[in-house]
Amino acid sequence: MMAFSARKNLLTICDKTVGDDTIPTIHGLRSISMGWVILGHTCIVSFKYSDNMSYRLLMEKEFLFQAINNGPYSVDTFFFISGLLVSFLYFRTTAKHDINKLTKSTGLTSNFLEFVGMIVYRFCRLTTPYFFILGVVQVAMKWFNSNSLFEPPSTDHINCPKYWWRNLLYINTLFPVKDMCMLWSWYLADDTQFYILGAVLLIMAVKHFWTSFGLLITFLISSWATTAYIAYTNMHIPNEDDPLALFDKIYDKPWTRLGPYLVGMAVGWILFKTDCKIHMKKVTVVLGWLISISVLAFLVFGLYGSKIGRVSGAAYSSMSHTAWALGLAWIVIACSTGYGGYVTKLLSWSLLYPFSRVTYCAYLVHPIVIRFTAMRLDSPVHLGFDMVVSNISFINSKN
């Protein structure tokens, strides 16, 4: 019953300490990225329920607004973190414990039981809050569909009763987006599919490391090629099209978003193998930070005002998500091995730990809060800087 104790859970969430064998930098990346996600979703809903849609076109021409347009990279950060933690924690666990003793078997039977255990553990951990929120979404959107002046932003009240089982199996991104229940759950589906693939690679890596590594590289290159092909055949130009223009073909599909997760897995293995102790020369550290910051800044602001062709657009679409993860890889490695300086202090700031611990629930809940705020209005919003600031402040206070 203590698991349902509000006091105990609040104390756990607000605890400003972490274990010595954790990666504190992750908490900062997670907290900042969650704020970025909420910012992007707030803007999307505000645009939908505004009376001056043309204001969005003006804002999209502003340099700083590229941080909103390129908000999808915040999700790549979460994919990267997921892959990193799965890999790091798995190798650390297998180094401390004999898996054969835990499964009470050997060989393929042991591997199979280990795989099943990993999947069941993840399913139980994620699904309870996920499906509680899914039920809230279905009921709330059905009520708003009948009582709000505005149409719901998606047809959850219709799709959820029909297709909830896709969410339960975490396969909803394999079907058309028009039939998706709880649109933002696409991330959970992709992340779970990546986890299943990652579990296979990790179990294989214990005895057949190079085979597992070869498969990881193969999957990575295949993801690049697939994304490039889809972007090219659909004439997708990243800095001209709406960021969500190809949601059903590129944005939510696991084969186009796999790169950051695999990079994260590689970084997790590096940190485990080196025990977070890597000696680097000063010139290496300086170059590493310059390249990392330059890559991340270019991905957010680099295409502003530029013209790129069909081939370049396809190449950019296929490589950009992985490039983002590579930029983060340096930050995590440098900060975890003593070369992060003030960046380490910021990302490891104990004040961010509570926010980091609730990012999963914040991700599930915040779109409901945004929709509730918008659909209770008695008139469209009027887009403007003051409105954006006040709405973001309100949403963050509710999360």
Automatic annotation (TrEMBL):
Keywords: Membrane, Transmembrane, Transmembrane helix. It comes from the Eukaryota. The keyword Nucleotide-binding does not apply. InterPro entries: Acyl_transf_3_dom, O2_lipid_transport_reg. The chain crosses the membrane at residues 70-91, 112-141, 184-206, 213-235, 255-272, 284-304, 324-343. The keyword Membrane applies. Residues 26-380 form the Acyltransferase domain. Pfam families: Acyl_transf_3. PANTHER family: FI21449P1, O-ACYLTRANSFERASE. This is Acyltransferase 3 domain-containing protein. It comes from Ranatra chinensis.
